[in-house]
Inverse folding.
């Protein structure tokens, strides 16, 4: 039981091409930090918001980290309040699970202040309350990977089953974030509500092949399966140069390349030796469409959100 | 290199509720037997067809086992011919992969006569040629489980990837075959060509949860995931009493219950101690709809088609 603690929660890739709304994986290289501090007055107070994004709501009910911690304070009927300092390391509207990471970092930091800490599965529900503020509906495909780490399957909403899926250790994820924003709502609204059966079967084969490839360490099967035939063809028109960026990644040996969550960030899976060349080729392809971008490389390390400073 | 060999190929359950056209599993308790005998005259000759079904075509090109072995004889340019005796243990039109089992037993028996035997993956392509005769199109979701055994994922048609998926050893499959027939073509024609996105997401969650439950031995996750929300609701109207049979299985503790392949056979997964009670309840439920039925229980033993007699 501490008076103050700082948690780091990694960014995350929702969907992972083949698992729309059910798969996600953490991206360790970037993330949000939240410091929680015990205060005498009840409720939640946001003391500061800094880093890449500063113009977020300061009212706890309208802030993802604030609302997540507030739902925790209320549910546990805590006899103290919590003050939050939020340090954003994830660009807004990037499709990298920034709102989820803030909510997760908030509850993980607050958890360190409790007389008896909660499990990650218990924290998940509070983080979801925060994510709801940002997305307007309940989604766990960014929350769970940021909290648990690595490649994560989440099924069920009321009592989610969360399963970490092994990934061959040589795999790296390359992320390229073009300097444009896309709203999650707009990216959802573009989707057809009805899908051709032949594509449903094809995507099922890809999802099953991808998971089986991960569980059995079969990189060839991962390569043949990591392809989104349902969502990506509809959303790629929202991202200038997407096809050129994807072609560049695949030409340099990527196992697969698709849109991170609702976009516009593009991710590629590859093996470690190819990662740098793939990153550079993807950045160059966006540049040809006059889009500057930031790019990072991460392992698929299964460690999730964690306390980085506290005492 | 033998002059004669007999192979057994097990029945199989296509789709397994959540993996339409990509998953299947063998059912060891029943199957077809084919004896292959070396003869001097070239080509393939069907000497006899016996067992549960006798009125199948005797011309090799129109018979699944005949066509499978014929494609093998032609492709390998064998300097001898093969005579086949087919013993059907799988009822026709039952949704238990009978045509696939005959094709598989044919190529496995014929393989024992070759100077150098082929791998199962090589045999798969020849068996597919036989299955094509029966179904009018190329499907491997019954061929692969009958040939390899256990729960099998097959993705890709031209160069199929076949993966055996572990199943917790306590799991049993109960099969109940009502005395009626359904054509695979009719069962395919009833399907909508377009699926609602929300059901696609739900089914993806079920498929991913089911596979992950199998790989991690999580029976609770298997139970929560073994549910077909896309195909079963459309096909169940073709099977009188289906809902009552399913309800009976679930009431007695089944992990899940759905239609085997294109039907009308219904299967349930359960743990070993519940298997007999579930079988009896399902048979009774069909009887209430004036349908007699046969019923069997099998392990999910990962052994597939095999030589049972030859020398």
């Amino acid at each position: 039981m501490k008076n103050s603690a700082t948690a780091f929660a990694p960014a995350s890739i929702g969907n992972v091409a083949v698992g729309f709304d059910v798969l996600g994986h953490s991206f360790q290289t970037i993330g949000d930090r939240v410091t929680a501090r015990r205060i005498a007055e009840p409720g939640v107070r946001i003391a500061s918001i800094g880093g890449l994004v500063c113009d977020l709501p300061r009212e706890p009910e309208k802030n993802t980290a604030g609302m997540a911690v507030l739902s925790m304070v209320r549910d546990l009927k805590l006899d103290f309040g919590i003050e939050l300092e939020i340090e954003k390391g994830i660009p807004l509207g990037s499709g990298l699970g920034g709102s989820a990471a803030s909510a997760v970092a908030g509850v993980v930091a607050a958890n360190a202040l409790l007389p008896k800490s909660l499990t990650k599965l218990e924290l998940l529900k509070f983080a979801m309350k925060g994510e709801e503020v940002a997305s307007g509906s309940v989604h766990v495909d960014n929350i769970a990977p940021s909290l648990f780490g690595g490649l994560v399957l989440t099924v069920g909403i009321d009592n989610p089953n969360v399963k970490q899926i092994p990934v061959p250790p040589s795999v790296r994820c390359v992320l390229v974030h073009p300097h444009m924003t896309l709203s999650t709502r707009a990216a959802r609204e573009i989707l057809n509500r009805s899908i051709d059966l032949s594509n449903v079967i094809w995507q099922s084969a890809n999802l099953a092949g991808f998971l089986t490839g991960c569980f059995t360490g079969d990189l060839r099967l991962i390569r043949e399966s990591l392809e989104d035939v349902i969502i990506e063809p509809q959303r790629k028109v929202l991202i200038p140069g997407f096809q050129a960026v994807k072609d560049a990644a695949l030409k340099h040996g990527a196992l697969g390349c698709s849109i991170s969550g609702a976009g516009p960030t593009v991710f590629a899976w590859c093996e470690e030796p190819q990662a740098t060349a793939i990153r550079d080729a993807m950045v160059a392809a966006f540049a040809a469409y006059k889009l500057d971008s930031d790019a990072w490389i991460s392992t698929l390390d299964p460690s999730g959100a964690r306390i980085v400073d506290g005492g």
